[in-house]
Amino acid sequence: MDKHGHIMKHNFMESIWNNIPDGIVVIDLDENILDVNPGFEALHGWKREELIGRPCCFTPVHLLEERRLMIEKAKHGESLQCQETFKLRKDGTMVYVSLTLTALRDENGNIIGVVGIERDISDRIKMEASLFEAESLYSHLADSALAGVFVGQGNRILYANPYLAALYGYTNEEMLQVDLKKLMLPGELEVVTRDAQVTLMDQKQIYFHFNITGVKKDGSPVHLEGNSCLISFQGKPALLGTVQDITIKKEKERSLRDSANMYQRIIKFLPEPIVLIDNGEIVYANKLAVKLIGAADDSEMVGRPILDYVDPAYSDDLMDVLNKVIHTDDPTNFIENKLLCNDGQTIDVEMSSIRIHNYRGKMVILTVIRDLTDRKRSEEMLVRSEKLSVIGQLAAGVAHEIRNPLTALKGFTQLLKSKAEGNSFYYDIMTNELDRINFIVNEFMTLAKPHFSKFSTRRLDHILHAVISILETQAILMNVSIRTEFENCIPSIYCDENQLKQVFINIIKNAIEAMPLGGQITITAAMEPDHERMRLTIRDEGMGIPDEIIRQIGQPFITTKEKGTGLGLMISSRIIEQHQGLMNISSVPGEGTTIEIILPLNTEEQ
Ligand code: ADP
Ligand code: MG
């Protein structure tokens, strides 16, 4: 220690020796350690006591030759600055240092040893390495990203990755030349810049989101969506961001939206009751479904379990079906079910279900409901009208059978009258009554017999009187009187007589049936002012037709009568149509009904 006591003389030097973070080692010419500072102790992990007097050996084997050369040079007075190399620690690990070697001289200038100063640069190296890595990582990311990446400042693009350039149809170099304004629709840059300022500066958000319509090199538009953040580039603020081409996404969205809209419209206007079910809960009910259930509107049904509207006897089956259909794209067959309506009634229905992939973003089940009530009723009615037509045919046969004995009866009555004295009055009555029976039977036959339409000119009053005489008996039984008011001139019309008779029978029968306690039927006929048509009205004083029936009149099987067919008015209006006429029904419930028929005379057509 005495050898280098002079180094330590100054407090100043001592302070540096003790506090400098660099490691300092002093060796003699034999390369034995004379001293190390605390920095060296910290750097290598040895204690000073362990090192002094020992040979200096902190070099990994593979660098020994390099070290030898360096020390030789130092011993010859050549100083070595900032040589980067590895040194060994006590624990065997290596530390990367920047090494400076200088010769140690005595007062006379003779070299007596070497001083080594080591600065730990492993952190710096690590940082440099990671910087390099990060940089290459980022540039790699940006270059290979499947999104546009840019740095923009002022009106220029400072950096654009190849993807962005390709998106715009420019080369990378061109991209850096082009004015930012030209990269989007006019006015958009100003809007985006203002938005960026507001979000980044005022609201202090880190990112700012934008949507622009980019303008490609060839002038075609491209929908872009992106994020951007504020960075400092070369001391000035710049925007770093990414953009994505969303043209396809937009188109997809639009076509999805379009098709969703279309489906919703289709569902809305489908002429069948339809409900959409999500997890057993009704999420949509169209108008007809609302009507079928008898709900006030759809909001009453939406949100409720479908089972609220299903007869409990059918609910398990329905749930099975719904649970199955949600896992397949196939629709179910129409399956019979019973629904509970709001008025407490149950109705027979058939239901078919299919899953729908995207109803407001959800997978739901669409169920079509078919109301079987009407069908069941019309099946019943068909059977009934079939029965009626069979009875009609039978009646025609029976009528035929009656006519022969009638002819005999009439002949013998006349014979008896000619032979008997007095009482001829009674024979006249009998003959008249027999004539009436004959007339009615004949009418019956012609009406019941199927026939092709046969047009001819007929007098309307004859037709009406024939009908009245058929219905008279029934009218008298019901205490109904039939009054006819014909204007002076009695029109003849070109018509199918039997068909018109059928019309009047239907209408007058309805009128009689409407007055169970009796009353009057008034039939009037008059020329229209144009003298080309005539107007016939048949008015009763009955109970009238309820509004809901009047609206449906003309449809088959609409009847309020237990034994009704609901066919009479439908057939009548068809017949009048065939005569190019009009039939109009007006009714005041409780006061009576008026049927008005307008028929063209059609005399020319004869
Ligand atoms: P049906 O007489 O077999 O019921 P219609 O077609 O002749 O069939 O009549 C249909 C329905 O119209 C009747 O059930 C009845 O409710 C109503 N209706 C028809 N005419 C009258 C009337 N003159 N007065 C009251 N209701 C009537
Ligand atoms: Mg009728």
TrEMBL record:
Residues 397-603 form the Histidine kinase domain. One of its GO terms (molecular function) is kinase activity. It catalyses: ATP + protein L-histidine = ADP + protein N-phospho-L-histidine. Residues 81-133, 333-384 form the PAC domain. It is an enzyme of class 2 (transferase). It comes from the Bacteria. Residues 9-54, 153-203, 279-329 form the PAS domain. Pfam families: HATPase_c, HisKA, PAS, PAS_4, PAS_9. Keywords: ATP-binding, Kinase, Nucleotide-binding, Phosphoprotein, Transferase, Two-component regulatory system. SMART domains: HATPase_c, HisKA, PAC, PAS. This is histidine kinase. Coiled coil: none annotated. It comes from Paenibacillus glycanilyticus. The keyword Kinase applies.
